[in-house]
Amino acid sequence: MIPTIKKNKQLFFHIIIWIAVVFTIANQLFLEKGEFPVKFLLRIWINIVLFYVNYLFLVPRLLLKKKTLQYTLCAVLIIITPVFLNKVILTPIHQFDRIAGEDELFLFKKLEIGISILFNVISLIIGTSLRIYEEWKKNEKKNQEIESKRVTSELLYLKSQLNPHFLFNSLNSIYSLTTKKSDIAPEAVITLSELMRYMLYQTDSEFVLLHQELDYIQNYIKLQRLRIANNEDVNIQIHGSILNQKIKPLLLISFIENAFKYGTDFKGNTEVKIEIYVHQGELQFSCINLIGNRKKDYQNSGIGLQNTKERLQLLYPDKHWLMVKEENNRFIVELTLKLT
């Protein structure tokens, strides 16, 4: 249905353009000569036919398929054919033979042929340029659709990896509370349910409100603090005016998960410091954690962190700055993000 409407619009546009061109020139000739320009109308119809032979057949079937030599030969025919038809068909209609003097008649015919060839060349260039532009736009749109589908599929894949990773970490945290028969285990379960509700019902949107994402992060940290015995050095600070800014969902959580996973030393002390500053359409995120002596899981380590880097590249190209480093036995993540 949509392609048919598009073709109808294109046909209507072509008809309007040709009517405007024919009417304007014919009207001008009528005002100058005082007679209806029959010869001009016959010539213009010949040129219209040849224009569409080039536009509809020669360009897409020869030029765009790299058959340059064949197209060049056909283009030459397009240019000289109207001149030949003008001589064979239109000469009997021509009334210029009344002019006295063969020299004047010869010069006039030479001038007429030159103008006809020039008109044909211009018509050929316009038709070729128009068709190439339309094909370029069509290919550009197709490439954008392919890229959009690629990005969407990659994001769905990355997100499908992220959610189980988060869930497994959270369940491990609650499991550690239940094994200790902690009184705060029920509160941890409720907090987890709030987190999962957010992930299930909010993060399917392209954007979420920044304050919702920050509430989610604070709930996650609350869950982790319930699990950790020595949590005095676990804190989050949020500065700035948070109004109606929006952000892509689940961008920051992997950095924070990673900090809690590796931020405990051999004495059981955990150090995780998170600072978020929002100012003039920018979010500045900093996460610093102690590098503990926990044995690294080489099979699963860094899945969330790598996913976040890839998502940033896909979702915020040229709109973010990320720095990840180790310094003074601390793992540091700094991210600057342009918000919507």
Explain this structure to me?
The longest helix has 78 residues, at 102-179. The protein has helices spanning 2-33, 38-61, 68-90, 102-179, 185-201, 210-227, 253-262, 303-315, and strands at 208-209, 230-240, 246-247, 269-279, 282-290, 320-327, 330-338. The protein has two domains: 2-145, no CATH class; 182-338, Histidine kinase-like ATPase, C-terminal domain (Heat Shock Protein 90, 2-Layer Sandwich). It is α+β, with helices and mostly antiparallel strands. The protein is built from eight helices and seven strands, in the order αααααβαββαββαββ. The radius of gyration is 36 Å and the shape is rod-shaped.
Report the helical percentage.
55-70%
Looking at the overall shape, the CATH architecture of the largest domain is 2-Layer Sandwich
The pLDDT mean sits at 80
Proportion of beta-strand residues: 15-25%
Total domain units = 2
Q: Termini separation (Å)?
A: 35 Å
Strand order of the largest sheet: 2-4-5-7-6
Overall number of strands: 7
* Category from helices, strands and their pairing: alpha+beta
Low-pLDDT segments, ≥5 res? 92-100
Order of secondary-structure elements: HHHHHEHEEHEEHEE
Concise description?
This protein is α+β, with helices and mostly antiparallel strands. Helices cover 63% and strands 15% of the residues. The chain has 2 domains: 2-145, no CATH class; 182-338, Histidine kinase-like ATPase, C-terminal domain (Heat Shock Protein 90, 2-Layer Sandwich).
